[in-house]
Amino acid sequence: MLYRAMRPFLFGLDPERAHRLSLNSLDTLHRLGLSRLVAGAAPGVPVRALGLDFPNPVGLAAGLDKNGEYIDALASLGFGFIEIGAVTPRTQPGHARPRLFRLPKAEAVINRMGFNNAGVDQVVENVRRARYRGILGINIGKNADTPAERAADDYLVCLRKVYPVASFVTANVSSPNTRDLRRLQGEDQLGALLCALTRERNDLAQKVGRCVPLAVKIAPDLDDGAIESIAGLLLAHRVDAVIATNTTTSRDGVAGLAHSHEQGGLSGAPLRARSTAVVAKLSRALQGRLPIIGVGGIGSAADAREKLDAGATLVQFYTALLYRGPALVGQIVRGLAASAGK
User: Does residue 268 lie within any of the structural domains?
Assistant: First the structure.
């Protein structure tokens, strides 16, 4: 109810300003011990995946808290796990504003943020300051000015630095907002990147004494052949999970709406069916040998259940929070708990 009353005011602000104000407000509520009252209770729906024990299968997708500044406040909403980032080796401002656009009639967002973040060193420091001891994923990528042929260098820098503080690490090769990044999903490029990352991860595991799971986040705009090829590479290189999917460059479901012409990745309700189809195709290709984290268009427990029924083990969402508020986390978890009990 509180968020519903606040939403007209927030939607009257520039989207980035509203984003920051919402997170700061949530952080204040958390410090006052009130954030759980806003969110409601989230029951336990335990899931074991990636060698980790998740209290429930509902996670926060990367992109909301790029720098890990609000981990404790976001965790208090009842998420089973949190993913922050994407983070790059060096700080970068991202693309020029405006770069974030609401499409309220479709409960969608278009963004072309461009991996704006404070850089991996600052993000690691923020994580170390957080009190949260639950499952934390860190999403990593390359700097915009790093040539695609040297992208692996950036991913390796990030992997080494986040490894001691992450529960799992996600290689983001699918954002449409960094030039040539999606080229890394090609068979040769992805194979070389996964070879470098898994080799480095194995070396770090020996040094640290802990094997941190490695995930790869893919696009929703891949054809069937590319999905099958990626599935084969993930298995061959013993990656621990795949996140499906990132935002889409398609404008299906939003054509003609204000801002639908803006460049960037589309997220929210119009992405639901497309991302679920990718989850289902991956599930058939992987045959249960690798967990899938389903993302895209989740705005209810029924949407989350659809992803799980399509073959996902875990789910994540982000855009629906902007439209429905923090209570949505508990609603989805409670809905999944109820459906599991039937």
Answer: yes
H helix intervals, the chain = 2-11, 15-31, 35-39, 71-75, 120-129, 151-162, 187-208, 224-236, 272-286, 301-310, 319-324, 327-340
* Domains held by the chain: number: 1
Whether residue 121 lies inside any domain: the answer is yes
175 is catalytic: yes
62 assigned to some structural domain? yes
Taking only the tens place, the pLDDT of each residue in 266-282 is: 999 999 999 999 999 99
Can you give the CATH number for the domain in which 49 is found?
3.20.20.70
* Annotated catalytic residue, options 22, 35, 174, 175: 175
How much helix, strand and coil, in percent to the nearest 5, is found in the chain?
45, 15, 35
* Residue-wise pLDDT tens digits, 184-213: 999 999 999 999 999 999 999 999 999 999
Q: Which domain holds residue 45?
A: 2-336
Q: Which candidate, 19, 12, 127, places its Cα nearest to that of 64?
A: 19
Q: Note whether 136 and 164 are within 8 A (CB).
A: no
CB atoms within 10 A of CB 335: 17
How many C-beta atoms surround the C-beta of residue 44 within 10 A? 10
What count of other Cβ atoms lies within 10 Å of the Cβ of residue 26? 21
Task: Pull the structure tokens for residue 163.
Answer: 């490894």
Identify residue 297 by its one-letter amino acid code: G
| 342 inside domain | no
